Prior knowledge:
Radius of gyration: 21 Å
Mean pLDDT: 82
Amino acid sequence: xxxxxxxxxxxxxxxxxxxxxxxxxxxxxxxxxxxxxxxxxxxxxxxxxxxxxxxxxxxxxxxxxxxxxxxxxxxxxxxxxxxxxxxxxxxxxxxxxxxxxxxxxxxxxxxxxxxxxxxxxxxxxxxxxxxxxxxxxxxxxxxxxxxxxxxxxxxxxxxxxxxxxxxxxxxxxxxxxxxxxxxxxxxxxxxxxxxxxxxxxxxxxxxxxxxxxxxxxxxxxxxxxxxxxxxxxxxxxxxxxxxxxxxxxxxxxxxxxxxxxxx
Length: 263
């Protein structure tokens, strides 16, 4: 990974840049932020399980045994897998998702969730196959292209990651995490100006978010454009006042700006 925090005229405190907009991937648990699915979710407005319509707030939907008591279906398997996935019980989630793909071989949701589970288990080759099966079921889904992009990123194939993120952006240009991920990959490839464009697009979509201006600030800082970095980080800090790393960076750059001011 390129060092996006090269010190300039003074040493800024180290910060861990968020890699993906991702929520739990690369270098730990960052990729999971960008893992997405449009499949049945026990927290959606209303879900159907085993032919029964169950209100989303029904606490029984958080009970694996209750779900297992319903008539067997791929949807029930996915709901069970989601519960295990949320608890980090990946082996049990994998069993449930595989069952869903066997019951419904053409289910986009089943293959997409199976890919997510396998990716979290670092079984990348199998995950890639599952994602492609999801795309066979429905080729025009941005979320699976995002997931494939995350997978390629974790494997170190930035060109393939960029391709998937661009495909996702073509399908859903309003998804902020696509532009954040694309900006990250472009920057790591040394494409700083295209990365800036991607981050600006992300900020346009989510003007209240702090991640895009924070990342923009690192690009400007890496270029030695400290006033540009200060402007970006000040904007990011206004949106996330609890970020002590950002606050420290802003204060350091403000001190530098004051020291270089011509009286």
